[in-house]
Structures are given as C-alpha cells and as structure tokens.
Sequence to fold (781 residues):
Amino acid sequence: MSSERTIERDPDESAQPVTSGAESVVRALENASVDTVFGVQGGAIMPVYDALYDSPISHVTMAHEQGAAHAADAYGHVTGTPGICMATSGPGATNLVTGLADADMDSDPVVALTGQVPTEFVGSDAFQETDTTGVTRPITKENYFATDADSVGDTVGEAFAMAERGRQGPTLVDLPKDVTNADTDREPGSARLPDTYRPATEADPADVDAAAKAFADAERPVILAGGGVIKAEASDRVRDLAIENDVPVVTTMPGIGAFPEDHDLSLSWAGMHGTGYANLALTMSDCIFAVGTRFDDRLTGGVETFAPDAEIIHVDIDPAEISKNIQADHGLVGDASAVVRQFADALPRAPDTEEWVATCWTWKNDYPLEYSIDEDGPVKPQFVVEAVDAATDDDTLVTTGVGQHQMWAAQYWTFTEPRTWVSSHGLGTMGYGVPAAIGARYAAGDDQSVVCFDGDGSFLMTCQELTVAARENLDLTVFVLNNEFIGMVRQWQDGFFDGRRMASEYDWIPQFDVLAEAFGATGFRIDDYDEVEDTVEAALAADGPSVVDVHIDPEEDVYPMVPSGGDNGLFALAGDQL
Amino acid sequence: MSDGLQGPAPEERPRPEGRRNSQGIRIDPEVEAEPEPRRTTITALVENEPGVLSEVSDLFSRRQYNIESLTVGTTQNPEWSRVTVVVEEPDPNIEQIEKQLDKVVPVIHTRELGSDAVSRELVLVKMDADEPERVHAITEMYDGTTLDAGPRSVTVELTGSEREIDDALDALRQFDIREIARTGKTALARGETKTSIAPDRLK
Fold:
C-alpha cells in the first residue's frame, strides 16, 4: 500500500546551499523524502513557508490547523511514514493539539512544525505566544524547542526519525522566528535517533520459547492483532501464523485490516461494539497471543472479566505497554514483525484447535451481524455501508468520524487489507473523517478510492475542510449518515439515562448536499432505499469531492454492545440486555 | 431504540471460570487479594537537558502516582544528573513507574533500589532560640550541625536516614519550629553494585 515517494527536482535546478534556519528545516524534510505538508500560514511560521517557496515539497493549505494535523495523521497511517503538519505560534499551535493527541493515542507517525515568537520574547506573553512544548509534551512522543539555526535542521531530522521508528507517534518542533530567520550554512545531516533511544528489535529467545510452548499447549488459543501489527508491517506474518496453525484471529478496532475479514479464521474485531463471536472467543480463550495492542478499555471492558482463563502472551515494541492494563504471563518486547517470526519459528507444534475452531464457528452462526429492513421505512445505515463496500474495490481507503456511523462502518465493511481503515480510535475525535480523507487522498495510489463515513454531528465539526478538497479537486466521497442526533450519545442516554436526551438532538440541521455545493463539492441526497444504489454509484463516479447526505433511521442503534467497564462475554444484543 | 440483534441471551452463554483483579492480574477466585502499596526508592540517570525534570514529574502527575519525594543533582559526568524518587504504590504501579521513566527519552537508566541502598536526606530546621543549650544538645545527639545562632532564632542542619530525620524533628518540635526545608531522599546502591548502567555509546 505505501507508495514509494521521491521528491522531484528539476535537474537543471540543483538544490541551493542552505542560507537560513528555515531553509535548513525544509532541507531536513527534503532529505526525509517528504513530498507533501499540510498546514496554515501565520506570522511566526512565515520564514519556513518562505523557504518552502523554493522547495519541490508541495504544501496543502487547510482550513483549520486541526484539519492539518488529522490530514497528516491519516497520511502517516496510510503510508507508514510521518505526515507533516505546520502551524504558526499561539492559536495555530493550540489548534493542532487535538490532532496530535489523536495521533499519540493511535501511534500514528506525524511531525508537527510550529512557529514560535522570537527567543527574546519567549516567556513574556508576547502576541500569539503559547508554551507549545509545554502544552504538547503529554500528547507527543517527543517534542523539541529549536535553539539555534545551525542545529535546527538536525533537530527536525531527529523529530522525523522519532516519529517513524520504534513505537510510532507524533513529534513536534517549536521554531522561534529568530532561529528560522537566522543565517546558517549548516546542511542538516541524515535523520538519526537520539543515543538514549534504541527500540528493541527482537525479543529474548528464552521468553519466546516459553511463550511458544504455552501457545502450543493451549486448547482455546486466539491471536489478537492490534494496530501495532499494521504499523510494523507484520500483517503477512500474522496471517501465515494463523493459517499454518489453524488459530482464530480477533483484531482490535485499530487492528482492522491486519487479517482479512473474509477469511474463515477471522472473528472480526472485539470490544465495546465488536462482534459477539470475537468477544466470546476472547472471553473463553485459554491463551491469547496479543500483538501490538495496549488493551484499551474499549477492547477489554472491565479488566476483572477480560479473558480470565487466558494466559496472555503480549508482544509490543513499547516495554511500558507490557502488563500496563492486563498482566502479561509472557511479555515479548520487540518489533512485531520480527517477534511474530521468532514466535512462529519457536512453536514446537501447532496447537490442537479443531474443536475450538468449530466452537468459534457456532458462535459466528449464533451471533451474526445483521439488521432488519423495512423497504418503506427509513434507510438503515448498515445497508449504505454495505452498498458502498460492494461498489468499491478492496483497497479502498475508508475514513470515518467518531460515533455510531464509525461503528457501523467498522462492522459492516469487510476489510481485507492493512492500512485501509483510517479512523480515530483512542481519542475518539469527532470531526476526524473529512480531514483524514484529505490526508488519505494524498497518500493513496492513483487507482485507490477514498470514502469517508461521517455522522451529522461529526461532519459539522470539520466540514470546512471540504473547501480544501474542492480547491485541490480531490477525488473523495463523504457519506454523511445523518440521523439528526449525536447518535452515540443518544444511544447511551436511552440505555443508561432513562432516555433523557439532553443536548443530543439537533432541532435543525443544514442540508448537507446543499452545503457541499456551497463549498464547491458535488452534493447528493438519499432518503429511500431505491435511491441508494444509483446515488452511491453517481457519487463515487463524480469528479472531485462529493458529499452524500444520507437520511437514515434516526432511532437505529449499534449492537452488539458491551457497556463501559462491563463483561465482554455478556455483550448486549438489544437495549433490554444492557 | 432499535430492536437489536438475534442470538442466545447473556445468561445462555458459556462462562469462564477464572477472574482477574482490578490490576488485570489473573487470580485465584477464592483469594481476593488486591496488591498493597509499599514505599520504595527509584533511581534514574538522566541526560542534563532542559525540561527533563518536568518530563519526569509530568509523568508522575498525569498517571496519578504519588511522589513522596524527588531529588535531582548532577553526577560525576557533568552531562548527567541523578534523579531519586520515593514513591508509595502497589507493585504493578512500581513496575509501571520504572517503565514509564525509561520511556522518557533523556532517561539513560532507571531501576528500583533495594532496601540495603545507601540513602540520606538533609533537613534545615529554624527554631526559636529561647533554650540554645538544649537545642544544641539535641542537635549533637543526632549528629547535626548548628549553621546559624542568633539572639532569637537558631538554624540547624541534620543529615540521616528518613527515619532518623523524622525522629530528630520529633525531638526538636518542643522548641517552636519556625521553618523546615527538607531535601527528600537521595540514594546509591550499596557496595560494588552499580546504581545505574549507561550503555557504552553514551560514555
């Protein structure tokens, strides 16, 4: 999926020597083969933009810095190499915060470059000054305050290496205007990690042997593939391990696409709105080989009842994840791809899973994902997701906002390839979908489609980014599953607050198809089932961005559901089981 | 509210036999033991960079680990500092504190020190000087030093284990203590054991 990216420079116009800190910053990006940056101009970042003027790197002006951060995040997730976002000091930098926090929670590689007031004014509450490194320290993997023009290029290089290697994540470099304006002829060196940061590659062989023996002896083994499998390009190895040993695979939600959901051994994804069979398999398992997951509470439900019979083998590149939320019986620290290979090699024999796989299949039959259709009634959102899936290729990139629509997209789209599911998991950021679709579009191959499922509430938070899609004529299609509610909140209010729908209902909502036209996109609307197929086809075929305002059944809920902190095995199939 | 999905109801499903505790640790269902907090000392060798101390203290506050004391100062290598943290937490948290500390990029090495570590704390105590002889006697009893003696106040320095300092302060309370400045514990591993190990590339 990740495309080979090289920046093209006119051969007659070889790179001019660096003369300023800002040029050194841009040169560091060029050295890292960055081809696109997402950002918004502003006072303190102007020297860097000025240096971009002469660079072959293209800049995409976003409507809001949050959009720049989400676009960079999606770009980083789809390509596997850092997406770059830029913003000015103060409000520009603080507007990046949500996007950086999102990338941090989902371990997406992002480099943020922020302008800062000149060094002599730092700390004086100068115009548009914020303590950006202070604000972003808890939500970045690492951040930097540039101190001088000679070293700033190397600092940006280190930020790039830190974002990309080890456990991926967002990094930030704060660039005081005097540093970027200052003269320097220092060319940045190659991007390198700090000496104190050396992520493990392979796990301890003795630990691997012990874990492999436990797995081979298991009667009810499950492979749990998290987002780290995708980040480490370990999907192929996980597939081979599962298929060669006939072991069922459950993914986490960020791990969607790590294992083909149309394969017999796939139990789809587990957690709050995961499938019943995935949750039952984890709950009843006696040994879980968990790779690249941090056992988020949306996955585990209450930790007391999470897979209580299971010996846990936990593979993670970040040692701090081992036994953080769920105690691991075997902690294997290393790169997922390398460790899965080590593990496969160390397996003394395949576990005997015939009976267990058959049991999982009975659960698959017992708890199918399904929904009912009344052809004269309002359109069910699940039907729309399936219709779009059917009308597009397997490598289509799917981005979402956050809410009920996100869960329906995750449940009813059949993902078969890694890096095709682009969503906000850990932070649950409403408004992620549209800017993520823009970032995904830049990361996608020419033949790859980009669709976004959004909710009406989520869409309204960042729909201004459509102006970017229209200006740049980006081929992407947004399906707004419009129920005129903050739907997930409404579902929780119905389930846990006696149906008191406080502030979750929209009394008035714009016509999204008309709104899209105002932004320069093509607008469509769906009210009935008989419009779905043709409209989906027309929207996908339309040049440039299009928005389909899909008026869905406003009372449709997402099931199965494990109430927050609940027991995964007791997932509710309907409201009366909550 | 929609109809939901079909399938066997929660009470008709298979149930596992085991249990975990609130820390996610598999436990014997008969023994409902939750881990008890214990007091311990963690030492970290860090690079002298702006913001390191803030990164270290941020991680304690954001993860709600309770710091009893935190000391920091430079080492034999001027590019390195040693941080000593005293915490009171249950075991899984202590393990997590070490791992989270290790995650801070400028942290070179971190470990928990055993109870045999060599450790000291320093306190300055300023008291009323109504009975200078008696203050002097108690200060001497705890191997302390008088740093400043005026007509109305006297300031003494005491160095010792946390326990000794506590005892000395108890004894000095009779003199109307005006102010106390305590450093918190600093410590090194005993004997030939290395407190911290820096990789060769950093030496």
Remarks:
- Chain B touches chain A through 45 residues (CB under 8 Å).
